Amino acid sequence: MAAREKLYELLINCIPADVIIKTLALELTKNLDESLKHEVIEWAAFYEHRIAMGSEDIFHIEAFIAKYMAIYKRYLNEMFA
User: Fold this and answer.
1) What's the CA gap between 11 and 58, in Å, rounded?
2) pTM of the model
3) Each residue of 32-58: pLDDT tens digit?
């Protein structure tokens, strides 16, 4: 819930959704394993395109964050399984 509030605050303060997605993707990939960076950037581009084509930017940003969490969880499970 705190993440959603922060995202709403950014959108309310006129920060474009595509800038939010790009910044999230860049920050999330800084300390990420090289094998995952390409996939995360690919999904960021996918959701950025969805933002450009649709409405309700918050849904697409949240979907990108959820996708990142799923990718990272899969990576951790594969690494420690």
Assistant:
1) 8
2) 0.91
3) 989 899 999 999 999 999 999 988 899
